[in-house]
Each structure stands twice: as C-alpha cells, then as structure tokens.
Amino acid sequence: MELGFNPQHIAAASLFMLVLGGLLAYVLVVANRKLWVYEDPRIELVEDLLPHSNCGACGTPGCRPFAEALIDGQVQPSQCTVNSAEQNLRIADFLGVDAGESERLVARLACSGGNNVARMRAHYAGLESCRAAAAVGDGPKGCSWGCLGMGDCADVCDFDAIHLNAQDIPVVDAAKCTACNDCVEICPKDLFSLQPAANRLWINCRNLQFGDAAEADCEVACTACERCVMDSPEGLIRIDNNLAVIDYSKNALASKVATERCPTGAIVWLDERAGVIKGREAKPIIRQTALPAA
C-alpha cells in the first residue's frame, strides 16, 4: 500500500493555519487597543536622573515609583535624599517645578553602652547577629535595652554610613546617611530612629531602670536624676518611665546647658564638626577594653 500526500488535505490545512493566524493576530490587535495604558515618556528620563538606589527614603518603594510620583506632582525632587541638591534641581528644571525643601533626616542610635562600660550577664556563642542574640533570653547584655553590637545595622546599610567602633557600638556617618530606614527596621532593640539633623540635643540611652540599678548595668545609662530637666527651659525635657525624653517641638529652646550636669553623659549635644559633646560633670570614660562577662 502506497502512502502519499493528498493535495486537498494540504490545502485545507494551510487554509486553516492561515485563518487561525489571522484570527489570533486580530485578537492581539484588539487586546492591545483595549488594554494599552499610556505611559508618560518623561518617566524614563526622570528615572535616569535618580540614583537607582531604590532605598525607599523618599517614601516610595523605589526610584521608578518616585519618578512616576514626580510626574504626577505628588512629591517634590528634594524628597530624594540620596541625590545631591544640584541633581534634584536638574530634575526640577526638567519638569518645570519647584525643587522644594525637605528637612534632612539622619539615623540616630539611642545607646552609647559599648563593651567597655556596659556589663554582660552571659557569654553568647551563637550566630553573630543581633536578631539571633536577642532571641536568646533577650541577649547577653546586662542592660535589656542596650545595643548588642553585632552589626546587623551596618550589614544592611547600602551606603556605608554605619560602622562599629572599637567598643562594638554602631557609629552613623551623618554625611553618608540617606535616612533609608533599613537600620531602624533591622534593630531588634528599636534603638535606631530617623531624626531631623537640626536636632542637636540627644538622649543616648533607652534604659528604663532607675538610678543605681541603671548605672550598675551601664556606666553611661540615664539614671533619671532630673538634672537635665531642672537645667532646661520648662517643658523641653521630661522624665518618662525613668528615662529623659526631649520634646522636639520645643527644639528652638535646646542648648548644651541641658547636658552640663548629667553625671553619666547620657544626654549629649551633637555638633556637626566636633561630634558628640558631653557635659562638664560627666564622668570620663578611661577604660577602652571590654569588661569581663559576669
């Protein structure tokens, strides 16, 4: 029996494929017209002027959503804290809008209890991570509120703005900090917060114990002695749960005077050039080596 090709079958199959192809093409054309969404070509151009860091400091998930928000007039260029002021002005000129002014924020750590002044109640030998250590009995540090010093914050900082000092306390380089909030989210002790760079008076502690009990765990802890409250304008500082708290709505009243009589140096003045300044009555920290574990 001979097998052969039937010309009629080949023609029918070819016609079927032609009709099917045409039908599918028609469906794609209709779908494209129905589902097509206009995208402003300026979005790509504005995105190219952004840093592509996708850090979220501007309040959007990334640089492209920020570019879209700029085009829609929902945000201003100055809200990108990673870009230089000059670059934000270029974006403003391109869009024909005001660059705007936004208060610069920086990440600040509410702890200065390094291993030379803060006592350890146990030896931790697990995963080198603050989050892991905090999950084991709230961490090995005597002060339950203190920084665990294992550098999770430095690890997540994409801008190299955080490093650990010799006493395992994170130090923020304000010039590099973009207020991206990553260190705030990663810290298991909630010690980081984003603060206006213009606020110079700062409580370098979160310990809620009172008096000698706080100082027994950490030599630089706030002891709720109230000297800063007495030396400051009324309402600027209060004691809340054994911890000094600054009312930054009265920041214009703040001065170094509030720090002068603090015996532990828990309240400090942050100077752009000189760095952390403690009051004259703060006990000097002489020991630079780690305290032995209890």
Task: Give a structural overview.
The structure is a single chain. This protein is an alpha+beta fold. The chain has two domains: 54 residues, 3-methyladenine DNA Glycosylase II, Chain A, domain 3 (Orthogonal Bundle), CATH 1.10.15; 173 residues, Alpha-Beta Plaits. Helices cover 28% and strands 12% of the residues. It is built from nine helices and nine strands. The strands form four sheets. It has a three-stranded antiparallel sheet with strand order 5-8-9, with no helix packed on it. Strand 8 and strand 9 form a beta hairpin. The termini are far apart. The model has no long low-confidence stretch (mean pLDDT 91).
What is the element layout, followed by pairings?
Blueprint: H1 7-35, H2 42-48, H3 63-71, H4 85-95, E1 105-109, H5 130-134, H6 152-156, E2 162-164, E3 170-172, H7 182-186, E4 192-196, E5 201-203, H8 211-217, H9 227-231, E6 237-240, E7 243-246, E8 267-271, E9 275-277
Antiparallel strand pairs: 1-4, 2-3, 5-8, 6-7, 8-9
Helix pairs in contact: 2-3
Number of helices: 9
Q: What's the number of domains?
A: 2
Strand content: 5-15%
Largest sheet: 3 strands, antiparallel
Percentage of helical residues?
25-40%
Shape descriptor: elongated
Could you give the order of the helices and strands?
A: HHHHEHHEEHEEHHEEEE
Cα-atom radius of gyration: 30 Å
Mean pLDDT value: 91
The top level CATH class name of the largest domain = Alpha Beta
Number of strands: 9
Unreliable segments (pLDDT under 50, ≥5 consecutive)? Answer: none
Question: In terms of quaternary structure, what is this?
Answer: single chain
At CATH level 3, the topology of the largest domain is: Alpha-Beta Plaits
Gross CATH architecture of the largest domain: 2-Layer Sandwich
